[in-house]
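The following block was generated as part of the benchmark described in Methods. Ligand: glutamine.
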Amino acid sequence: MEKYVFITGGVVSSLGKGISGASIGKLLQLHGFKVTMIKFDPYINVDPGTMNPYQHGEVFVTIDGTESDLDLGTYERFLDIYTSKANTNTAGDIYQTVINKERNGDYGGDTVQVIPHITDEIKKRFRALKNNFDISIIEIGGTIGDIEGLPFVEAVRQFQLENSKEDVFSIHVTLVPYISGANELKTKPTQHSVNKLREIGILPNMIICRSGYRLNNLLKKKISLFCNVDENCVVEALDSPYVYSIPEALYKQNVDSLIMKKLNIKPAKRFDKKWFCKVRLLSKFNKKVNIAVVGKYAALKDAYKSVDESLNIAAAEVNAKADIYYLDAEDEDLIKKLWGCNAILVPGGFGNRGIEGKIKSITYARKNKIPFLGICLGMQCSVIEISRNLAKLESANSTEFDENTKYPVIKILDEQKKIKYRGGTMRLGNYKSEVKKNTLAYDLYRNTEIEERHRHRYEMNPKFVGALEKIGLLVSARHKGVLPEIIEMKDHPFFIGVQFHPEFASRPMKAHPIFKGFIKAALKESVNIK
Ligand code: GLN
């Protein structure tokens, strides 16, 4: 079976196309199909690795070490799958492939053009995962009408033409805004957006209308008539505080049956509603916990999307609600703002800005015995903090921030320069490490072998481990017996720093052990989670 569902978006960006697509994917999965999702981003960057999180949110990392758009995180969490390089595409990467082929003489003297060469490359990538999955849900980033998105939409048109009608389903996600002066929901933007789509030659089979208010039948009829889609295929998607309840909202509108009917597929197994019940249970809580996240991009939650999800998922599993406060590491009143927080998390990051603020909050967490979790740069900052303030290695630093520091407790290791990592100088993707028994790390994982995702250049310098272990630090996991992967403090209820990114591995109903332990410690419950 080889079926494709395309998702485009209209009117405005940030409509949650990824969440709509992933919710549909979840429903199809619950019917027993193998479902994947593939993202196409029309920007020229070859990958989002170097993009400012303030513009595009966090960089998600797949297990094969691909730096990708944060939507891949949504796909992984909803569908409980692992994505890879084949799940993320950008215009830059596609053009680069075509240009490289041209330089290589692969086009035999042809004039290389957007149509057919770029569109052919795009169509090839639509099919990239067809052998491993029954249904590929393909999300086209951007908004219909954007110049740079044209080759992608054109490729969708061609793909529809070249494949059986039974194999392709097209969904357009739009906005139905409420105009307060008129006290009305307006369908005109949706009509215009669908018109644009039809101009290009795509007739959507379904319209998902994002709205803050319910759509009545009259409104649905109007959209159906003007946009040329069946009335039952005009679907309402209300703003929802809990994203994992969206699949059920779509199920109640028969979205899954309508798609299966058009694709001419029968459910592969009896639909299991247990997932909906579990989700409903997760949104109930009887306690609250305040978590401070001290970072550089405090003003944009999406910059820490997976951290946010991981904290919420872990809290939900212990019937708690996490109130997460994103604090700017450069805020002069930072420490005052930490008062009343039950736990402190310092996430990953690059560059000097905010480092001293992060270090100060770690001192605060360490001295006041407040549960602390340091992720990647957060772990590196905790090593710097402990070196400076406990081991009295004054001005200890990472060579990322001070190349000539007397005590390079974090550095690019010489042996590392010889190793060829997937990301060039960057350690990217999954790497194994060995966890020591009788440690907090072991209590959490209950395993001596773990494998976690990485995205960093610098490492804790093994030369300082001896000195730091004398003053209470413990390296509780290592990669290949050498590189420190987890550090903890012996005389602290929960102080842990991890060189990797556990946030990318959380799934609803399968909280990551590190996050679950962290939330439990914040709630002052027994950390031993098994
Ligand atoms: N900047 C640090 C490094 O490159 C940490 C990276 C991160 O937190 N992802 O090692």
